[in-house]
Amino acid sequence: MSQLPPCPACASIYTYEDGPLLVCPECAHEWNPQEASSEDTKVITDAHGQPLADGDTVTVIKDLKIKGSSSVVKVGTKVKNIRLVEGDHDIDCKIDGIGAMKLKSEFVKKA
């Protein structure tokens, strides 16, 4: 028995096949699994268009003021082992001397 993916709308595990589509009996959502898999993969790129991945090392390309603090992340600061997340600030990381931060990918370049 093959394992079907959960419903992308309500996360129900009771999905079933109906021809080429998958159907959720709880919320009545129908989707094509081939189309859904290609939509889910959003590519996050740096300021120069290079694709980023979890675990990459990036360099800050602009002085970034830290909200609620007088500290600044200086140009050229290397950030190791980034984690990509959903949202406006799409990079989660730890910066030496500052701590945990969220950065926008438009202000970094891949090292």
Brief account:
By secondary structure, the chain is mainly beta. The chain is built from 1 helix and 11 strands, in the order βββαββββββββ. The strands form 4 sheets. The protein has a 3-stranded antiparallel beta sheet. The protein has a 3-stranded antiparallel beta sheet with strand order 7-4-11, with no helix packed on it. A 3-stranded antiparallel beta sheet has the order 8-9-10, with no helix packed on it.
Descriptive report:
With about 110 residues, the chain is mostly beta strands. The chain has one helix at about 35-40; strands spanning about 15-20, 20-25, 30, 60, 65, 70-75, 80, 85, 90-95, 100-105, 110. The strands form 4 sheets. Strands 1-2-3 form a 3-stranded antiparallel beta sheet. It is elongated. The model has no long low-confidence stretch (mean pLDDT about 90).
